[in-house]
Amino acid sequence: AQSVTQLDSQVPVFEEAPVELRCNYSSSVSVYLFWYVQYPNQGLQLLLKYLSGSTLVKGINGFEAEFNKSQTSFHLRKPSVHISDTAEYFCAVSGRGTSYGKLTFGQGTILTVHP
Amino acid sequence: EAQVTQNPRYLITVTGKKLTVTCSQNMNHEYMSWYRQDPGLGLRQIYYSMNVEVTDKGDVPEGYKVSRKEKRNFPLILESPSPNQTSLYFCASSSDRTDTQYFGPGTRLTVL
User: Fold this and answer.
1) CB pair distance less than 8 Å for B56 and A104
2) What single string gives the DSSP state of each residue in B42-88?
């Protein structure tokens, strides 16, 4: 079984401030990890993913995330946010192994960037 | 243009009336998946398919059926819809589960 917990349902920040969106996962096997973003009234877009190798992953729009196996976390960070980053962000996990296609999303974190 | 299309985009129906939501992709992707999105619950996977005639349950398959008879199409069938299936539904496809998933525009379903 696998699960994802996004620790903050809403994160308000001011423009140009740094932000961290927290994600913890649980899985009985090793995992692939993803962050997706959803802008209002749109589908989801991939921000970044961790498959293997370096634990620091860089994605689009200046976002990055760090895979921490010991803490089972995959937190998303951006050093300076813009108004246009206002959106809902989803962390997702897929376990390697028998449930090959199963993908589990977290509950989502709404990031609101204020001027 | 590479895309995932869903139809209809909006649907209001009544309890027990069978319905199908279609999903089609033009990227020759092997992997396709259906999700429902509910406030506070994020996206939950309903069913996924690794290839033609290969499907498996996600986290919330009860009350839904799928089929994958052609690579490009992955319809979602609700044989007897109930009000608790009122939700926003997304179809997605990718070359495999580690690759970027491309999401359709969503189908907002209301079951009265």
Assistant:
1) no
2) EEEEEEEEEETTEEEE-S--TT-EE--SSTTB--EEESS--GGG-EE
